[in-house]
Amino acid sequence: MQNTPQHPLLKAQALLADPENLDLDELTSQLAIAAIEADAQSALISLYEDELRRELRAKVDLAGAIPACPDPQHAFTLSGEQLLSARRQASLHFNRVFQLAPISRSTAPAEKSRVPQDQLLRSGLGTNPAS
């Protein structure tokens, strides 16, 4: 909700300030616009919360439980400030876990530690005895 003179709730409030010259049609129109904007904001908040719940659950599944969300299934019940707090805790826990245990199994070894192919062939280790 923006606090500008153009916002429908502020216009409605201004209309109500002068009850002797009250235009009920204009008041109804402004309140209807405000209701539509509120519904749109509510839908947007719901989308953000759904995305935050998915992120929280993924981090809890990958890095383990956090005090605010010991059970990954519980992540779907959080909302608002609790959801933001749990997501923050999960992010910190996730970063600590994966900073301590980096994923090195999927990385290629450094070039200097590799044995050249011609040296493997000369030693007999690079040959396939089945062929």
What does this structure look like?
The chain has 131 residues and is mainly alpha-helical. It has 4 helices and no strands. It has helices at residues 8-17, 24-63, 80-100, 117-123. The relative contact order is 0.07.
Q: State the low-pLDDT regions, or none.
A: none
**Which band does the percent of strand residues land in?**
under 5%
Main sheet?
none
Please tally the β strands and state the result: 0
First-last Cα distance: 74 Å
Give the quaternary arrangement of the chains: single chain
Query: What share of the residues lie within helices?
Result: 55-70%
What is the 3D form? Answer: elongated
Taking all Cα atoms into account, the compactness measure Rg is 30 Å
Structural class, judged by helices and strands? Answer: mainly alpha
Mean of residue pLDDT values: 80
Topology pattern, helix = H, strand = E: HHHH
Number of helices: 4
